[in-house]
Design a protein that fits this description.
Blueprint: E1 6-12, E2 25-30, H1 36-44, E3 62-67, E4 71-75, H2 86-102, E5 106-114, H3 121-132, E6 139-142, H4 152-163, E7 171-173, H5 182-193
Parallel strand pairs: 2-4, 2-5, 5-6, 6-7
Antiparallel strand pairs: 1-3, 3-4
Family: Belongs to the TRAFAC class TrmE-Era-EngA-EngB-Septin-like GTPase superfamily. EngB GTPase family.
Cofactor: Mg(2+)
Keywords: Cell cycle, Cell division, GTP-binding, Magnesium, Metal-binding, Nucleotide-binding, Septation
Length: 199
């Protein structure tokens, strides 16, 4: 995919702050510090467009990134950070749910997990939610460069079993730092978005 330009278009906590147009969107959900920002940056070949942080739970808004003026990536607030108050967690949950339920631009929700760790109960709840609303159920398993390739399939099986995924092909091993499977993911995304990959 040829990225001509990419920018942070909006940061929102309510629908009135969402971009108002008909551009298609792919949203990314996952635990705090699981690598969503690094994934977005690597896909867009940018170093710091989506801000990464060593402090989990920092992203508290829905961030809309417009790409080539024709589609968007949407970074949802991370969930599951233990040191955030219950009130704050509930607030984030409502922000995420409102977007996922009301946003007509949304074409797909992708769950981001860390391939090194078994998905949590919150990951399972999010994945079940994604599937219940008719989305495909793609899972990007990040940080594959942190384990040996011989262990990829073993860890993917753990993810598959925990999330009760029927089709292993929906789980895509990925590395932001090594750019593993960037083009493969783009092949899937361009199909979802209905755009030409190499335009």
């Amino acid at each position: 995919m040829k990225i001509i330009k990419s920018d942070l278009q909006a940061m929102a906590v309510s629908p009135k702050q969402y971009p108002y147009d008909e551009l298609p969107e792919i949203a990314f959900a996952g635990r705090s510090n699981v690598g969503k920002s690094s994934f977005i940056n690597s896909m867009l070949n940018r170093n710091n467009l989506a801000r990464t942080s060593g402090k989990p739970g920092k992203t508290r808004t829905i961030n809309f990134y417009i790409i080539n003026d024709e589609f968007r990536f949407v970074d949802l607030p991370g969930y599951g950070y233990a040191q955030v108050s219950k009130a704050e967690k509930d607030k984030w949950g409502k922000i995420i749910e409102e977007y996922l339920i009301t946003r007509k631009n949304l074409k797909e929700i992708v769950l981001i997990v860390d391939i090194r760790h078994e998905p949590t109960s919150q990951d399972l709840i999010m994945y079940q939610w994604i599937r219940s609303y008719g989305f495909t159920g793609y899972v990007i398993a990040t940080k594959v460069d942190k384990i040996s390739k011989a262990n990829w399939q073993k860890n993917i099986k753990i993810i598959r079993n925990k999330l009760d995924i029927k089709d292993t092909n929906l789980i895509i091993p990925y590395s932001a730092s090594k750019k593993i499977n960037v083009e493969y993911v783009w092949d899937g995304f361009t199909s979802i978005l209905g755009i030409e990959k190499d335009q």
